[in-house]
Description:
Elements: H1 2-10, E1 18-20, E2 24-25, E3 28-29, H2 35-44, E4 54-60, E5 68-74, H3 76-81, H4 87-91, E6 93-94, H5 125-149, H6 167-198, H7 208-222, H8 227-237, H9 240-260, H10 262-279, H11 288-326, H12 334-337, E7 344-348, E8 352-353, H13 354-361, H14 371-388, E9 399-408, H15 410-413, E10 427-432, H16 438-454, H17 456-468, H18 470-474, H19 477-490, E11 493-499, E12 506-508, E13 513-514, E14 529-536, E15 539-547, H20 555-567
Parallel strand pairs: 1-4, 9-11, 11-14
Antiparallel strand pairs: 2-3, 4-5, 6-12, 7-15, 8-15, 9-10, 12-13, 14-15
Amino acid sequence: MPGSMIAACSGFNINNHVILSTHRYRGRPVNESNIQDYVSELAAKYIPSDLPQWQVTVIPNADPAQPYYILIKVHHLIIAEEDDLHVSEMLLLQDNERKSFVGLQDGLTRATNTKQLSHFVRQPEHISKLLNHVQHLISCRWQQFIYEFESLDTPDGVKAHPDARNLSQLLSLLLIVLVNVALGYWRTRTMRRKWQRRSTGYRNDLGTLQTLYVLFQHELEQRNLSWAVARSALLYSLQPVHIVKTWSRFLWQQLLHHFLLLPYHIYCELLALRDVLLRGQTPYSSTYCARLYLYVPLLLYAQLELCKICYELFKAPRNIYDVLFVQPTKELNILHKKSYAGRKIVSFSRSIDGALLRERHQHLFGQELRESDFSLACLAGAVYDYFNTFSDRAAVPALLNTTCRTISKGYFTDRSADKSEHIGGVVFLQLPLGSPDALKAHQLHEIVERIRKQQIMLYLASIGQTKYSLLTALLPHVLTKIFINFFSYNFPVTITEIYGTADTQFQAAWGQRVQDVLLFRPPQSKTCLSLNLHRFGDKYRLAIMADTHLAPDHTLLTQSFERYMETVTL
Length: 570
């Protein structure tokens, strides 16, 4: 009943956002032969502007082996601005591979690059691992500190600890209060920003000092702290008997840990040293040997990464200028000569088996030529075929300016972490157009290697923009808009590589197996074509989203990609 009252007051109608579509399209049953046209027609339709910009459409399928499709349309600003909203909550997908605990050695071994397609730029992983370990250590120590000194009521109504009886307990509780006030103020400010963004009529009647005072009073009342309690704790701590007890306890603990238990500690250190030398890990995580084995390599590698970042910062101005203004081709193509409507259409290829691809090339892929280089060469061949259909109106360029980024599988399945962690940075790629062959694959391999050396700071800066909106916060709005329009015109095509582990299997929240997941990233600003190359498990698939004025020839991109991936041998 309360839910229906809220819905009636807000005007929200679930039927406008969750739609069960018909199982027939233009008089024919929906199946693999016409599902692309059906989905493309649904994608081209606008959601009414007076409704929240998201919609879920369930499309029944005539094939009993694949009972239905689910099309989810959501505005990209909803995902970007709502920090608490994850894509997985709309997809209702779960990750069966997610670990329930974090070990000491997690992340110390370098992951292989096979799960990611081009693996454009390696992020500074050791610095983030060191920060994560330190953060985890601080969190554990803080929870232990709270458990020892906190005096809140337990669920049965009995205090876990008495009120502050001495100066040590008093100072500990005050520290907990100050930390909770700071965290509470941060959460309050974040919530107020969300309310201001969602409602133009929202007013904040409390200032910063008033908010801090209210939070401080609440924490003091919750822990029964007052001037009387503080005075009593101070007087009790100054009593001679208490001082003698405190010093006696302190000396006994020092004697116990540093003299009586010294042989046991040495024995544990020797066991930890043996495990580290023979097995590379040890269960004695509290020993000095285990801590040195964990943190010394992390510190060394983190310092090396920091030096490399400083060196890249020194080279950044010249590299950024070359990448953005010198290297991009000045050739015009058919995309520059078309006018665009802003409505979007889609197309997607069949699933292509990566095992058959490797079998056809007989272990050709390695360090000199990667499987991802071949897939990009096939993608370049598909774009070349599309441009070649308009060769009478515009010459086919030798190079095409594109922007590329990667998205990992966790973007679709993770519900707890920061979703921006699964989104890689942006790099600028001059895609060599032409039929895929060994020369084109090696050329792409060299281009990707040059990107890894030259575009590190651009990659990291774009990650900072994705996570914290750094660039838009530093640059004026007008200048930001000019830059976006300029680069989106000169880089009209975006390539997104979506990847997962070798044994990726999607499963719905209710336990049903999901055959496949496709992401259609919309082209924004003056970009008109978005190419989304998926590799989940050992399957390749291309999904494109384009402006409606590129139809009906946009399907040539997916058809050519299928043909090249299944027939071309280097």
